Amino acid sequence: MTRRPIRLAVDIGGTFVDAMELDTRTNRVRFRKAATTPARPADGVLNAITALGTDLSEVELFIHGTTLGLNAVLERRGGRTGIITNEGFRDIFLIGRGNVPSDHMYDFQYQRPESLVQRRFTAGVRGRLDYRGRVVEPLDPDSVREAARTLVVDQQVTSIAICFLHSFLDPSHEREAARLIHEEFPEVSLSLSTDIVREYREYERTSTTVLEAYIRPIFERYVDELEAGLAERGFAGRFLIMRSGGGSMTSAVAKTAPTHTVLSGPAGGIVGAAYVASELGRDNVLTFDIGGTSLDACVIERGNPVAAYEAQLEHFPLLIPTYDIRTIGAGGGSIAWLDHGLLKVGPQSAGADPGPVCYGRGGTKPTVTDAAVVLGYMDPDRFLAGTMGLRDAEARAAIAEQLAEPLGLTVENAAAGVFDVLLARTVGAVRQITVERGHDPRQFALLAFGGAGPLLAPLLAREMGIGEVIVPFAPSGFSAWGMLSADIVNDFSRTVMATLDDADLAELEQLFKAVEAEAVASLVAQGVPAGEAVLERQFELRYLGQEHSLMVTVGRELDRDAVRAAFDETHRARYGHTMGNPLQILNLRVRGIGRTDRPELETLPRGDGDPSQALLTHRDAYDFGQHAVVPFAVYDRARLEPGDTFDGPALIDEGTSTTVVPSGQRVTVDDHGYLLVTLEEAA
């Protein structure tokens, strides 16, 4: 059978859907955007594919990043969910940890958001394991059936989370409870904590299982609807969905583990950024992704994105592997507003509907995009390569009426103030993942992508002393491009809770092998040959008596001294010191990887160094280097060649995004056509 030559990636953002096509015969990519359709998200995906004009019968691989699960929690659109746990512990999820978010630390009237599960939707059953996984009380089948009837018949729940105490040591009680419930109510969706995460901490494990149960019904419907729509258009290839912690999984696996997709869109950009960092020879990179509704930043340190094994959805903990991303509600659609005379930006967003004022779709509140239009950064006639005109007069009027006049400023100064506020919030987010983690941001390159990333990145670099900004081709679709290089991945873990000195290495080796067998089986089920599975081992460690832990990669041969040395090195790099305390192993982890072919970065022929052939015009715009409106040179990025160099103030327009280079900074086009923005004296 002839292999299909096309690979297709689609990423849903808050405002636009990005579709990227890779032709493996020529290594060429094509990119198109379509508006996000919040009411029917699958329609936006199919519209983007239609705009791209891809023949789906030629597509071998379709890979997708979506925030559907995240939005279901934020907008409270999930399934009616119940909880079955041990008798006497039905309030674990409702009580939680009792902690207050840091931004509400001194708010004595703070109230947590409404829970996803009301108390009447929780039930306790008889049966109990102790802290070593031994049976204290056998599971009572009648108690399980009664609890299920109460939840399903009386309370009309459609999805049930099953989470028992200490079940991570022995999942048999959870599996038996699921069997009993399925016999009586086969139509009810069941989520078992031990199928999702085999780790200690009852509240966090319960929260993860509840989120899984809450998201699953709508996620399954969405994937089924999208699969049907693709099939109608001739698609018969593999359908993969991005994971929050990098890599991908088949759509069938994703429907059983939707929590792993909640940050899948940003993850695509980080996967691509790690690949680009490796190809360009940059060990330390900061990713800087600004879309329509949010700004996401992540550290790539020594070639690897910094990972975390606990995420947050609102105040709900989620025990899944994810990239350590800092997200703030600040994107192109973020609304600028006044709070008692103070200018603020976000976190509210105009989204895709109605969108910024300049879109002309009924939006009335000024946004970052409207400010960019007023400042002259965006050509109203060339937006989205000329397929969508912008109404600059309406954007100017909204900023004048709602911001400039109340503040006593000119329209341009009010719009510049929007960027100043956004920049201040951005600096805070970047400092959280650099300075507060012992990193000097001046030793990193800044990789800018997302529709608005190149708009702000040079300003951020100047503000923080970052020496280089890298702008890839089609930055607004970079997350989709990154998905094309994603491996098939699955993560597995077991709680150990033993000191490194006292742990039996032979027992740990046997546990690693058992978990590796699960990882290989998962990859084989997703089409990866067993002999091609790559397995990575890690320990989650901490000094005995501490709360916070660090991840350490371990080799095939377990060596206490090597593990200790690796942990001390990581701890010194993160916190600046080491301690003599014994090390405690919390969890062992195995990541199973099925490698995929990555799109190559094409090396382009060098030009003569003269960018004049790409010069379109000059346009007045606001220069933050001079704090005034001055003429900017406007370049067509498609006509720039490797070796071209020019100074700001300049605008590089590529239809779907614009790179804004203030005075005092220089642009060089590298051998791959990427833009490198540096300070003039550094250049």
Key features of this structure:
Oxoprolinase-like; alpha+beta; 5-oxoprolinase (ATP-hydrolyzing) activity; 6-stranded mixed β-sheet; 16 helices; 31% helix; 9-stranded mixed β-sheet; ACX-like_C; 683 residues; single chain
* Average pLDDT for all residues: 91
Kindly state the percentage of residues in helix: 25-40%
Overall geometry comes to globular
**How many strands, what sense, and barrel or not for the largest sheet?**
9 strands, mixed
Give the termini distance in whole angstroms: 52 Å
**What are the segments in which pLDDT stays under 50 over at least 5 consecutive residues?**
none
Structural class: alpha+beta
Beta fraction of the residues? Answer: 25-35%
Counting DSSP E segments of at least 2 residues, the number of strands comes to 35
Radius of gyration from the alpha-carbon trace, in angstroms: 26 Å
Number of helices: 16
List the helices and strands and how they pair.
Layout: E1 6-12, E2 16-23, E3 28-35, H1 41-52, E4 59-65, H2 68-74, E5 81-86, H3 92-95, E6 122-125, E7 128-129, E8 135-137, H4 141-154, E9 159-162, H5 172-184, E10 189-192, H6 193-196, H7 202-232, E11 238-242, E12 248-250, H8 251-256, H9 264-280, E13 285-290, E14 295-301, E15 304-305, E16 307-308, E17 311-313, E18 316-318, E19 322-323, E20 326-328, E21 334-339, E22 342-349, H10 368-374, H11 392-407, H12 411-433, E23 445-449, H13 453-464, E24 468-471, H14 478-483, E25 488-499, H15 505-525, E26 533-543, E27 550-554, H16 560-575, E28 583-594, E29 615-623, E30 628-636, E31 645-647, E32 650-653, E33 658-661, E34 665-669, E35 675-679
Parallel strand pairs: 1-4, 4-11, 5-6, 5-9, 9-10, 13-23, 23-24, 30-32
Antiparallel strand pairs: 1-2, 2-3, 7-8, 11-12, 13-14, 14-15, 14-20, 16-19, 17-18, 21-22, 24-35, 25-28, 26-27, 26-28, 29-30, 31-34, 32-33, 34-35
